[in-house]
Q: What sequence folds into this?
């Protein structure tokens, strides 16, 4: 990967991790947006920032090769795993932590998708009906117009 593309990926979300939104450290990683590369941009030999996300080391390690929705479920399940730890149980007893039913929303999902995928969106996305967005694999995206036709071709 050339340095120009790497710098563009670094700046894609204002030098912040696409998933947690924290400032990218000096040692950061590049996550491939697999669905986009394999299915939508497969004929595009030259890679662009649309094909990648900048991520911090902890998100990169936690996500691994999971899809976004699998990664979202992993994070959401952290509370269940923590409830088995005595330290966490004590912290709850002493009101040091508070559990919520907040949904896991990645940083890039809180931003305007059109800026990152120009020309790909309209209001026909079926995401949120227990189906992920085809482009970003998110249940929160309401902008993608590629879900129905393209996702059916994959299956």
A:
């Amino acid at each position: 990967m050339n340095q120009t593309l790497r710098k563009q990926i670094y700046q894609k979300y204002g030098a912040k991790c696409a998933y947690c939104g924290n400032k990218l450290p000096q040692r950061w990683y590049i996550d491939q947006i697999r669905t986009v590369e394999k299915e939508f941009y497969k004929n595009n030999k030259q890679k662009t920032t649309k094909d990648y996300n900048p991520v911090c080391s902890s998100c990169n390690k936690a996500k691994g090769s999971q899809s976004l929705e699998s990664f979202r479920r992993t994070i959401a399940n952290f509370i269940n795993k923590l409830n088995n730890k005595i330290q966490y149980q004590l912290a709850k007893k002493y009101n040091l932590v508070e559990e919520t039913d907040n949904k896991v929303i990645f940083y890039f999902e809180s931003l305007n998708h059109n800026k990152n995928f120009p020309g790909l969106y309209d209001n026909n996305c079926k995401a949120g009906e227990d189906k992920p967005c085809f482009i970003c694999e998110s249940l929160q995206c309401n902008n993608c117009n590629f879900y129905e036709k393209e996702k059916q071709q994959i299956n």
